[in-house]
Design goal:
Strand content: under 5%
Oligomer: single chain
Distance between the termini: 59 Å
Shape: elongated
Number of helices: 4
Helix content: 40-55%
Largest sheet: none
Order of helices and strands: HHHH
Radius of gyration: 22 Å
Structural class: mainly alpha
Length: 91
């Protein structure tokens, strides 16, 4: 399928050309990649609808504890519990 796009702002065209070159792609291939990535990502309305269909999450922990656990398990640079000065921005 062919698609012609007119009146692309010069700065947008220049950025597309630069990014295509940096990725070793033709402008055509890069634009197709950008469009494909964009339309495959759900819109905010679609994302909200998907979230609304999920069952509620139940936990005996409060939100602060969940955040603390998530940081501990997922971030190697997060400080140990109870010592905020030992992190990368502390002390």
């Amino acid at each position: 399928m062919d698609l012609n796009v007119r009146d692309v702002p010069p700065d947008v065209h220049a950025l597309l050309r630069e990014r295509a070159a940096a990725a070793g792609q033709s402008l055509r291939a890069h634009v197709i990649e950008v469009l494909t990535q964009s339309v495959r990502r759900p819109s905010v309305a679609e994302w909200r609808a998907q979230l609304a269909d999920l069952p509620p999450v139940r936990s005996s922990l409060d939100s602060a504890e969940l955040v603390r656990l998530g940081r501990r398990d997922g971030d190697p640079d997060s400080p140990p519990d109870g010592d905020p000065s030992s992190g990368p921005t502390g002390g």
